[in-house]
Amino acid sequence: MTEISDTPQLPMSRRVLCGVYATIAAVAFAATWSQNLAYQNAALDFFSSFWRETRVTPAARSVTIDILMFALAASILMVIEARKHGVPYVWVYIVGGLFIGISVTFPLFLIARQLRLNPAETLRLPTKDAVLLAVLAVMVLVSVIWVVTG
């Protein structure tokens, strides 16, 4: 027996986008938490040691500041978009970003946002943008692997 639904399904382009966001969140979780767990085994006072060591070198300070400022901008966007599109629990994504990683919770928020947008709207990227995003994704993944295996 088939069930008839009045709710239109997401177009394939938006389902693919949600899949990409989910993949980013999964890779970010695995990559960051493999390092967090390795660090936690090495430091008795994990939380204070971790933050103290983000200030050890100029490179660590640069990356830490970059991530913190990105998290602030992303949080502002998340609250505005959540209110605009009725995405519930926006503060769970933000607080989760502080404890799990903004690289994990921001893509999860983007999935929740996609699910709240008008299902009839399709996503059309120019070929140039799709190719450049694919190149960027490969470069980021290679960099993540290089950092994790370093």
UniProtKB/TrEMBL annotation:
Keywords: Membrane, Transmembrane, Transmembrane helix. The chain crosses the membrane at residues 16-39, 59-80, 87-110, 130-149. It comes from the Bacteria. InterPro entries: DUF2834. This is DUF2834 domain-containing protein.
